[in-house]
């Protein structure tokens, strides 16, 4: 404010002159009924779907159902201070979220409000949470790999940039851990990571954040949290808000990986809101558009053409099953939408086979087209060998001594199963995975006991860095392996295997 009185008066007069005069139309309605985070509002005939409504107490919500006389408004804030008779105002805007580089390294809610105590987000722009998916002509083939650092995924079910791969399994079978490990593996890659927690317990979200901060590159991650205690409206918009934040980087020609944890709870929230807004229930009380809400969400993940910048957005949605029932309503919906599924088996999990991936039910519909050529050549017939081993193992349970060739297959299969085990939050580099494949396919692990195989897997990265540093550097830089590099790797692997060789039981 100017110190001189006359200057202050001149400034005030200029402000008054610059103020536009005329009528301003403001839509005003009234809360007729409020309960469970949903308000039924009258007196807003011109409100459009998903428009933001502002309540007299400062709370906001969005129009979800438009009836002839009432508008079903889902609140995005606590409904404790909203009462019947309160005034409601239309804003003319749809729900938007902040986007930009400033979100990296932050923990926010679905509206972009900070939850980490680091102050407000300095957004570059605000974009609607509902955006059209790229058209067919704007997309490109999915050919570039996403290295998850998980041997079982990278060797058997390779993922590609722009793919949508469902992670599905029973409660507490390692679904979130699998997805978090895939995010941690991008620590040294060019991919931006977004983790969206929908309806999760605070303790579960805290563990995921701690893992990303400790083992990953959190400065290239965005964590969006709509916990189980959050308003249903916030839980409902969370996946769409996270997708909009990720699309910002994709549209700039960058690459992003987003995890939705999980869409089963999102579907339950959608059902809750639909019942409260008096929509007609369908199968299992879900409304008829429950398939569409996830289809339009996941279709936004894509690999863009060079004309659009060549960016990519890869989605890893998570779904929960009950007693391994993959034919349940929501899992089957998501399986039909996505480009494959990673199925986690509770029995394998309790046997200690972690990640507990069921290789018989899991599939990647992009598959070998995206797998790194170096890894594909090294893995060879790994999947076929492992599938044959699983069948032979069932028959050997009936007793009898298998003949020599079958015994060799059983030995090799047991070693494959051992190397597919992997501790959490310890992703492998591409060269480490290539080394493991070379070791198992060349028979170096056959003489080792299961414990020695685990020791081999643990010691492998440090051994390769020490004994084959030039080969590791060549693989990291070129993504290829010539005869000399292969020979160097085999020599280092052989030396490590010999140091661990113990007499096996007949």
Q: What can you tell me about this protein's structure?
A:
39% of the residues lie in helices and 19% in strands. The longest helix is centred in the middle third of the chain and has 20 residues, at 232-251. The strands form 4 sheets. It has an 8-stranded mixed beta sheet with strand order 8-14-13-15-16-12-17-18, with helices on both faces. A 6-stranded antiparallel beta barrel has the order 1-2-5-4-3-6. Strands 7-9 form a two-stranded antiparallel ribbon. It starts with a helix and ends in a 6-residue tail after the last helix. Helix 3 (175-184) packs parallel to helix 4 (202-215) and helix 14 packs across helix 16. The model has no long low-confidence stretch (mean pLDDT 90). The relative contact order is 0.11. It contains 16 helices and 18 strands. The chain has 506 residues and is an alpha/beta fold. It has 3 domains: 28-94, Elongation Factor Tu (Ef-tu), domain 3; 98-371, P-loop containing nucleotide triphosphate hydrolases (Rossmann fold, 3-Layer(aba) Sandwich); 377-500, ATP synthase alpha/beta chain, C-terminal domain (Lysin, Up-down Bundle), CATH 1.20.150.20.
């Amino acid at each position: 404010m100017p110190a001189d009185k006359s200057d202050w008066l001149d400034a005030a007069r200029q402000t008054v002159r610059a103020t536009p005069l005329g009528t301003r139309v403001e839509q005003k309605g009234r809360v007729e009924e409020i309960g469970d985070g949903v308000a039924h509002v009258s007196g807003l005939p011109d409100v459009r779907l998903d428009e933001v409504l502002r309540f007299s107490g400062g709370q906001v919500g969005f129009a979800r159902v438009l009836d002839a006389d009432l508008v079903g408004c889902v609140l995005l804030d606590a409904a404790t201070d909203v009462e019947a008779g309160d005034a409601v105002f239309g804003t003319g805007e749809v729900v938007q979220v902040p986007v930009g580089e400033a979100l990296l390294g932050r923990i926010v809610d679905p509206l972009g409000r900070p939850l980490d105590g680091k102050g407000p987000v300095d957004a570059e722009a605000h974009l609607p949470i509902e955006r059209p998916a790229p058209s067919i002509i704007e997309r490109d083939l999915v050919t570039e790999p996403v290295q998850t650092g998980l041997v079982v995924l990278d060797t058997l079910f390779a993922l590609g940039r722009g793919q949508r791969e469902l992670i599905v399994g029973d409660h507490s079978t390692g679904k979130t851990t699998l997805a978090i490990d895939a995010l941690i593996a991008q620590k040294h890659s060019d991919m931006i990571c977004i983790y969206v927690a929908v309806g999760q317990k605070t303790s579960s979200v805290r563990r995921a954040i701690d893992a990303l901060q400790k083992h990953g590159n959190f400065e290239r991650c965005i964590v969006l949290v709509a916990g189980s205690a959050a308003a249903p409206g916030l839980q409902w918009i969370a996946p769409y808000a996270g997708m909009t934040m990720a699309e910002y980087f994709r549209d700039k020609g960058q690459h992003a990986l987003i995890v939705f944890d999980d869409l089963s709870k999102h579907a339950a929230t959608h059902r809750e809101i639909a019942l409260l807004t008096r929509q007609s229930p369908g199968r299992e009380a879900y409304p008829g558009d429950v398939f569409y809400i996830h289809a339009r969400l996941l279709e936004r993940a894509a690999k863009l053409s060079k004309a659009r910048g060549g960016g990519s957005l890869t989605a890893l949605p998570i779904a929960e099953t009950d007693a391994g029932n993959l034919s349940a309503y929501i899992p089957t919906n998501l399986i039909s939408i996505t480009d494959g599924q990673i199925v986690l088996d509770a029995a394998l999990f309790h046997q200690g086979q972690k990640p507990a991936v069921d290789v018989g039910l899991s599939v990647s519909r992009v598959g070998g087209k995206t797998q790194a050529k170096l890894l594909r050549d090294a893995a060879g017939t790994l999947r076929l060998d492992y599938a044959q081993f699983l069948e032979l193992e069932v028959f050997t349970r009936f007793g009898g001594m298998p003949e020599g060739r079958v015994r060799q297959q059983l030995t090799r299969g047991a070693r494959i199963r051992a190397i597919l085990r992997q501790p959490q939050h310890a992703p492998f580099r591409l060269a480490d995975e290539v080394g493991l494949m070379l070791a198992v396919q060349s028979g170096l692990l056959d003489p080792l006991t299961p414990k020695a195989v685990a020791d081999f897997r643990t010691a492998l990265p440090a051994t390769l860095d020490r004994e084959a540093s030039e080969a590791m550097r060549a693989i990291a830089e070129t993504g290829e392996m010539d005869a000399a590099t292969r020979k160097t790797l085999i020599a280092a692997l052989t030396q490590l295997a010999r140091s661990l060789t113990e007499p096996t039981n007949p």
